[in-house]
Amino acid sequence: xxxxxxxxxxxxxxPMEPILALETMKExxxxxxxxxxxxxxxxxxxxxxxxxxxxAITTHDGYHTLQDYMVDKGFRVKHRWEPRLKVTPGMKxxxxxxxxxxxxxxxxSYEEATSEEKAALLTRTRxxxxxxGEADKSITVFSFWPDVVTLKEVGDPLEVGEFFGLDxxxxxxxxxxxxxxxxxxxxxxxxxxxxxxxxxxxxxxxGENTAFxxxxxxxxxxxxxxxxxxxxxxxVFAHILHYTRKKLGYPLSYxxxxxxxxxxxxxxxxxxxxxxxxxxxxxxxxxIDGPNCVxxxxxxxxxxxxxxxxxxxxxxxxxxxGRVGFMSEVCGLSExxxxxxxxxxxxxxxxxxxxxxxxxxxxxxxxxxxxxxSTISLG
Amino acid sequence: MxxxxxxxxxxxxxxxxxxxxxxxxxxxxxxxxxxxxxxxVQAIEPGVYxxxxxxxxxxxxxxxxxxxVGSCIxxxxxxxxxxxxxxxxxxxxxxxxxxxxxxPRNKFAWHMNQGGEPYKRGGRRNDTDASxxxxxxxxxxxxxxxxxxxxxxxxxxxRTYLGRNLPPEKLPIKVEDGLLxxxxxxxxxxxxxxxxxxxxxxxxxALSPHMWEGLAMGIAYLNEVENIPVIMxxxxxxxxxxxxxxxxxxxxxxxxxxxxxxxxxxxxAIPEMQCDPAGIEIKYxxxxxxxxxxxxxxxxxxxxxxxxxxxxxxxxxxSPPTHQTKYSIEEAVAKMVTAMSMAWDxxxxxxxxxxxxxxALAVLNNLARNPFAAALxxxxxxxxTGAAYNVSLDKMGHPIASNLRECYLNLVKIGAQNxxxxxxxxxxxxxxxxxxxxxxxxMLGASGVDCGKYIMQAAAGCLGxxxxxxxxxxxxxxxxxxxxxxPRIFRRLDPDKVAQRVVDVFVAADKELKKIxxxxxxxxxxxxxxxxxxxxxxxxxxxxxxxxxxx
Lengths: 379, 551
Ligand code: SF4
Ligand code: SF4
Hints:
The structure holds 2 protein chains of 2 kinds.
Chain A lengths: L2 E11 L2 H9 L9 E8 L10 E7 L1 H13 L3 E6 L16 E8 L9 H20 L4 E8 L1 E6 L3 H7 L9 E8 L15 E3 L2 E7 L4 H9 L14 H13 L5 H7 L4 H4 L5 H10 L9 E6 L5 E5 L8 E5 L2 E5 L2 H7 L15 E5 L5 E6 L5 E5 L2
Antiparallel strand pairs in A: 1-8, 1-14, 2-7, 2-8, 3-5, 3-6, 4-5, 9-10, 10-11, 11-12, 12-15, 13-14, 15-16, 16-17
Helix pairs in contact in A: 1-4, 1-10, 2-3, 5-6, 6-7
Chain B lengths: L19 E5 L9 H5 L5 E12 L8 E12 L12 H5 L5 E5 L5 H4 L8 E4 L8 H4 L1 E2 L21 E4 L9 E4 L2 E4 L8 E4 L2 E3 L9 H16 L7 E5 L4 H4 L7 E5 L6 H7 L9 E5 L11 E2 L6 H7 L7 E2 L10 H15 L6 E6 L4 H10 L6 E4 L5 E5 H6 L4 H15 L7 E4 L8 H11 L3 E4 L1 H8 L26 H4 L4 H23 L16 E3 L2 H7 L2 E2 L2
Parallel strand pairs in B: 11-21, 12-13, 13-14, 14-17, 17-18, 18-20, 20-21, 22-23
Antiparallel strand pairs in B: 1-4, 2-3, 5-19, 6-22, 7-10, 8-9, 15-16
The structure holds iron/sulfur cluster (2 copies).
């Protein structure tokens, strides 16, 4: 099963930290890939937060296609970051031509544009680039959004981290999601690698999404640009998050009610029972059947973990003031936040949505059954 | 020697031409007469024979030829009294002395249109091939990252919705202090949470009082004791008035069809109803006989039927093939759905049922635009009936699998797959696989399925099969007392036993559905449209249904 490791920190951290946590959970992943999303970027990115970052991998030809396309659309490169690739003997990673992390200025015509219009432009651009490079696999684009960098590559996570030179030249960030893949999709495809990103929302998941096809078809039928791809059954979790928050405008806690709705009789304890009943019927196609553990990041940077009732071995959330880890295994958490008070660790049960806001001062546990919130202060 | 003229049997049928031939054992038979008295079609009768026997008797026996007269059971060679293979005679015979045998080389099809009248019958499509539903297998076993579920111990929710689910974008919701609250009082269509296998429409007139009572009791027990919310459709022709005004009405879908039989009584009973019905089904077509209306023969219109239907006794009750007050199906659907919804103040899901057809999509698209339409029922060619022309039964209609799939995928295209539930019927459990057929249709996109013939066979021992066994439901002579109004026959059927079997069937189907869903890792929601779970070993079928091919 895939291993998940996310860190929320008050300080900028290197992505190697969650990667090292993944390393301790190695038994569970076969090293078939690493996916990284970094949000709230530091270092050279810190002063450039409003500029959208394009994270992509291209061939030489694809690189030119991409550049031409971006110029044509009026995007101007503001800044480039390139991984300092390190290929050592024995490394199994197949180096590709170009790993691209480019910051762009919006086209001039978008100077007065609303954030909605800008978001639509970024999504459309990402999808068009993806389409341009899909047939000949010359362009693979992961995200195009301000203050977010995505890196993905096939191989052992630690090796991939070193390959990208993240140990020496990291993209620092306050929120980092790392996923070590257990390949369940047979052909290793970079688009099948978590975390998945859409318009500021991202998730990574482990387990098997048995309701994948109906969910995919339902999302695909909502008429939302960007609900495409689905090389992995986990991509739908990111899109459901986007759909719940952005399209329907529901508060974050309702993500839990969408993917794992309460039973009819359980709803009665909630003040919003009448709405829950309607939601359950209307959103039936988005009910996941698991078993899945989902770690996600909301548009405002709140990181959360939740799972369905079938997920028999829960993930864990725990940490110290200013540094909280979300891990699929507790050994990862011990690696990432060694000195923490383990009595504050939270293993989310089937009704829990565990949340940590940027700054990582406290852990909030929202209980779906009665809608209450409990807070664990990290001192 | 007889004259040549007397041996000329042209223009006469022989026993070898008949579909079922009786084998009678002279030695075992004690001439009790039970078989001839139960035969529903008088295909056998007591006869006498004259036989030459050689006898040797006396002190110095000398073989002599004598002629003796004896009694026997004779099969009648009359096409109108042909043996229908029901084997009721065999069942009552204490000596196992009589049995009907299917004659595969019979010539019945060539002679059943005597007097220029095409062959009419009840029952099912006489097609013995394995149906597509039976060819579908569940091949996506959850082995990937987590073991499959335990059907016996895990918590399952085998429920579906009858009624229109608003698309989430249209839910009247506002956000206040991080809570979702109702926004205004807009129309929320009524929705019922039900078990995904329903009993399809079979009318009070078509079924005997004991059969109907048995089904109704079984349904009530399932809901109230077993907590399995199975609902049943009345078929055309109303409902016993006592039941209409009982608290059990909520387990029944009232059907309105082109004859509107029983509806005067239903509408007048509305003020006295204790609860709302589960739904209203508007029948536009029936899978077994597309393009035909209903027909209840005069002989079945006894006093109690006449009262329920609001008609005189002993008259043929023919429903026209179409709703004659309406100009087009669009108009019919729009007006009738609205009118029926209004009758119950929009508290009851109202939906049309059509026969499976290439043009189902047009009806579907029309419904998708009608905010009051609660579902669409599609009845495939393997649906059953009480009375129809043989040609309609055998040759008309569309198989349910591809029809349903096409409709579902079209709903996916317009994003209404959860908004407008599809109910599939026609051949569910045709070969005895009720739960497997239901699960296959659900994974192809049905929200639920209807069964009719299956329940008649399982709950009341209906004898019909695809070799045209029995299938005389139209004649009022049903040997099992299922489709007759003749009290001498239907009193053989014990309503309590029917009810018990109805309960058995659904309790078992509930378990079997879980046995199918568990290894596929599905338990919280019905796997509607989970087409990756299905495979078939016929490449053309796989392509048409857009599912996997596996061999
Ligand atoms: S099988 Fe049925 S129809 Fe045939 S002789 Fe026996 S009772 Fe009569
Ligand atoms: S047993 Fe009755 S219901 Fe069944 S086929 Fe014969 S006549 Fe019809």
